[in-house]
Amino acid sequence: KNEVEQSPQNLTAQEGEFITINCSYSVGISALHWLQQHPGGGIVSLFMLSSGKKKHGRLIATINIQEKHSSLHITASHPRDSAVYICALGDYGGSQGNLIFGKGTKLSVKP
Amino acid sequence: GAGVSQSPRYKVAKRGQDVALRCDPISGHVSLFWYQQALGQGPEFLTYFQNEAQLDKSGLPSDRFFAERPEGSVSTLKIQRTQQEDSAVYLCASSHGQGDVETQYFGPGTRLLVL
User: Fold this and answer.
1) Which helix (H) or strand (E) covers residue B55, if one does?
2) Three-class SS of residue A43?
3) Is B87 within 8 Å of chain A by CB?
4) Nearest CA-CA distance, residue B49 and chain A, Å
């Protein structure tokens, strides 16, 4: 079973475009994480949010707990944004602190 | 300060060999997690420590997998009698408190290839 679904799986954009990556989930949670994974495996935590919206630089993350949906937006995309973006669920029923990860969205930004 | 480090970064093992993967979390972080990431997939939970206590090992795929964190800092993930399906990237992460409601900091991973 897939508790977390991300879309699209792959995304190619031109530099400067506005990008949206979506995450839908089926379990009740109170925290959702967005992570960035560059080629070579390194994972960086971008956001952890439980309601509303957070912004950091050109990145914006939103979540609607009632609709079980979150989005990650990148404004004025740049080739260095090319990476896999992963949505992960936290604080779900029975969780001990670990996360449930989506399969990721592979983003490629062309110059 | 230093982030989460893992060693070795790459490991090639023959089928049937035992391997040990090390994780050095950020100093003072209470929670430590091990994840397994197969090629093209998102990470999957293996096990979780709070200090030296292993609170959840439900993600370990078989009894060939064993993890420990004896002094509440460095952790070792051991895989006995490795199989080809064990080939994956093994990620370690740590957090200051309970990891699902705060930022987890990830190590670079150990890429294991079992031939």
Assistant:
1) strand B53-56
2) strand
3) no
4) 9
Binding-face residues of B in 18-77 toward A, CB within 8 A:
31, 33, 35, 37, 40-45, 48, 50, 55-56, 59
- The pLDDT score that the predictor gives to residue B32 is 93
**Residue A57 neighbours by CB distance under 10 Å:** 9
A60 part of contact set with chain B, CB < 8 Å: no
Task: Let me know if B76 is exposed, middle or buried by CB neighbors in 10 A (0-12, 13-18, 19+).
Answer: middle
Contacts 24+ apart (CB under 8 A), B52-60: B55/A96, B55/A97, B56/A96, B56/A97, B56/A98, B59/A98
Average pLDDT per run of 10 along chain B, which is 115 residues long?
89 96 95 91 90 91 96 96 96 81 86 96
Q: pLDDT tens digit string along A39-67? A: 876 888 898 888 899 999 999 999 998 89
Q: Which of A92, A96, A102 lies at the smallest CB-CB distance from B42?
A: A102
Count CB pairs under 8 A between chains A and B: 78
- Quick one: which of B91, B88, B90 has its CA closest to B113? B88
Tokens of B82: 């490795």
Test B44 with A101 for CB contact under 8 angstroms: yes
Q: Count of alpha carbons within 13 Å of A104, Cβ hemisphere only?
A: 22
Instruction: Tell me whether residues B41 and A33 touch, CB distance under 8 A.
Output: no
